[in-house]
Amino acid sequence: MTSIDDRSRLEARIQLLLDKDELRELVFMYPHRIAAQDWRGLSRLFTEDGILDYSPTVALARPADVTRETREAGSDLVFVGRTAIAEFFPILARLHVKGFFTNHIVRVHGDTAVGISFYENRLIQDGESVMGAGRMCDEYRKVDGRWLISYRRQELFYFTGLKEGWAGAPERARKAPPIPARGWEEDLIAGWGAGS
Fold it and tell me: Which architecture characterizes domain 4-190 according to CATH?
């Protein structure tokens, strides 16, 4: 026979596992929505006030019309709100992006959570096959019982054409600008195995 305390602890652990599983599915749904070109569905993975921060990618992006225009306009590729995010996503259709997400780690704190996942993208830019990889740093919030992304920042490790390859590409030689951290990223990785 178990005590009420044991049962409560077990129920809390089960809920934590369910939350983590739902968060992983949320993260892995992102590239599925891109592949399906379901821009509305993709934007609905975010909270109404969600933030999509692609600004760190501008410095390492390969020259192309879309990135050149963005740089000249002075945009930092930060989109605030589900509507702004939805308006940005169709640009991915022109690049024929195929994304692959892996290595998701997450920490749940009640109805909020943080997580990091790695990604690899393959796309077409100016008729050339291009690949890039990096990580997504996410913050999540449970809204009406459903986990959503409240903040996502893309950090780019490399972005290069297949002809050059990632090891010898000029992009790899450029030093990326410092990425503005939100304070939890390194603790998440360092604290792995020390709790949730």
Answer: Roll (3.10)
How is 138-181 classified by DSSP, letter by letter?
EEEEEETTEEEEEEEEEEEEEEEETTTHHHH-HHHHSPPPPP--
Q: Is 52 within 8 Å of 152 (Cβ atoms)? A: yes
Residue-by-residue DSSP string for 8-38 = HHHHHHHHHHHHHHHHHHHHHHHHHHHHTT-
| 72 — pLDDT class (breaks 50, 70, 90) | very low
| Domains of the chain, residue spans | 4-190
Mean pLDDT over 133-144 rounds to: 94
Nearest to 42 by CA among 87, 76, 75, 78: 87
